[in-house]
Specification:
The protein has about 425 residues and is an alpha+beta fold. Strands 6, 7, 8, 9 and 10 form a 5-stranded antiparallel β-sheet that branches. Strand 9 and strand 10 form a beta hairpin. The longest helix is centred in the middle third of the chain and has 35 residues. The protein is elongated, with a radius of gyration of 35 Å. The protein starts with a strand and ends in a 14-residue tail after the last strand.
């Protein structure tokens, strides 16, 4: 067997293989045996057709078919022996089989491009630092109280702690009804997402009384190849059909013990637990945003066109995950084409990042050893009760090694880039206190 690797481009290599007929003879003979079980010729029982007759009548077809299978099999054997590491599905570009003489084939495959990495250290990456305030705690308390509130019939709206049911009619520019009336629409006036005009104009109103409100909606349109924003104002008239007052329970130690099932004894204990939980959530969000910004910076500083086949391989994996998720969520129809449009840029970025990981690992001599895999399995075994051996088998069957390597690369980048702490409050527009 003769092999040769042609370097087509930084992303593509081509494997040339020449095999003498004697090297593939055993597989050719096996193909005759396999095909003889399927071929029927009048006068002979299935599987009993003489080999000489098979070769004379079907030899070209059988051997060419076998040659293609042999080429694919030999390719993967060579990949394993020479550790070629193709990135995506290979493509046969040439197959030349001469019966009784030789088999020659070429297979094109994508490889991990070697990047000259730059600017992956000493970048300044912003990191938001959120802190839980008393206002956050008060909102959480209010939400808890509303969940455990009761409702009382009322005749008049006196503040925001009311739920009103209305019949809603849209009013056109001419002052006349526009479209069908919507009946029995419940509006929680205490919900901060509700248009403030609704509360302001409903306040002081009684059952069977009406009030009006409006809101503006902005949308982007394209005209003559140019995008512009169109603002529309919609006017409504609402007639109140019922009013219910939201009665909040008293927030005290007894209430805390009841809703926490005695996990917390006092209001202060509950507040402290909520504060810790919310802060942990904010810290996690802050870290995720920071890491994403860090990785985006590294990818942007080392931008390149990733191998197309590899991008599609990553995209196919993403689509499979999305389709499985859609099934779990009960969606009967999965629009693969629409999902592909939505995920293509993400797949392209992910392909770039995976290639950068490999280049960074090589350049900075970062790797994952088997003992680290075992340590991870031992830690997870202690938490889950699954045996170390089973976890190791699962790790080796999946991409756990790649996950650990990525974590190491991210840790390296975090240590070798600068953090700029930002208080989100500093980004809020400030009002001019001297005005007025």
């Amino acid at each position: 067997m003769e092999t040769k690797i042609n370097f087509i481009s930084a992303n593509e290599h081509e494997l040339e293989v020449t095999l003498g007929y004697d090297e593939i003879q055993p597989e050719i003979d096996q193909s005759y045996k396999d095909e003889s079980k399927k071929i029927e010729i009048p006068g002979f029982r299935k599987g009993k057709v003489p080999l000489s007759m098979l070769k004379k009548m079907f030899g070209d077809e059988i051997e060419y078919k076998a040659a293609e299978k042999i080429a694919n099999k030999k390719y993967w054997e060579i990949v394993e022996e020479q550790k070629l590491k193709p990135l995506s599905t290979p493509k046969m570009t040439d197959l030349n089989f001469e019966r009784g003489t030789k088999l020659f084939f070429k297979i094109l495959y994508e490889v991990m491009p070697e990047l000259e990495l730059k600017n992956y250290t000493d970048n300044e990456i912003s990191k938001f630092e959120w802190h839980v305030t008393d206002e956050h705690i008060d909102k959480e308390i209010l939400s808890l109280l509303k969940t455990n509130s009761t409702k009382e019939d009322a005749n008049i709206v006196e503040d925001q702690n009311y739920i009103i049911t209305v019949d809603l009619q849209r009013i056109g520019a001419d002052g006349k009804p526009d479209g069908e009336m919507r009946h029995d629409l419940a509006i929680d006036l205490s919900d901060e997402r509700v248009n403030i005009q609704i509360f302001e104009n409903a306040n002081g109103k009684k059952i069977d009384e009406t009030f009006n409100f409006s809101f503006k909606d902005s949308r982007e349109v394209e005209e003559n190849g140019e995008k512009k924003i169109i603002e529309e104002e919609f006017n409504y008239e609402a007639k109140i059909s019922s009013i219910k007052k939201i009665v909040l329970p008293e927030f005290n130690d007894e209430f805390v013990q009841k809703v926490s099932k005695d996990k917390f004894k006092t209001v202060e204990e509950w507040k402290e637990n909520i504060r810790k939980g919310m802060q942990a959530y904010y810290d996690g969000q802050s870290e995720d945003i920071y890491v994403n910004s860090l990785l985006n910076t590294v990818v942007k500083n080392n931008d390149f066109e990733p191998p197309h086949g590899f991008v599609h391989k990553v995209l196919d994996n993403m689509l499979a995950i999305e389709e499985e998720k859609a099934k779990r969520d009960g969606h009967k129809h999965f629009d693969a084409k629409e999902a592909e449009k939505h995920l293509h840029k993400q797949a392209e970025w992910s392909a770039k990042w995976q290639i950068i990981i490999a280049s960074l690992a090589k350049k900075e001599n970062i790797s994952v050893e088997q003992n680290e895999l075992k340590e991870s399995a031992e830690k997870e075994a202690a938490e889950t009760g699954i045996s170390v051996d089973k976890l190791l088998k699962f790790y080796n069957d999946t991409n756990k090694m790649e996950v650990l390597l990525e974590n190491k690369i991210i840790d390296f980048l975090k240590k070798n880039n600068k953090i700029k702490i930002i208080n989100p409050d500093d980004l809020k527009p400030k009002t001019n206190e001297s005005e007025g």
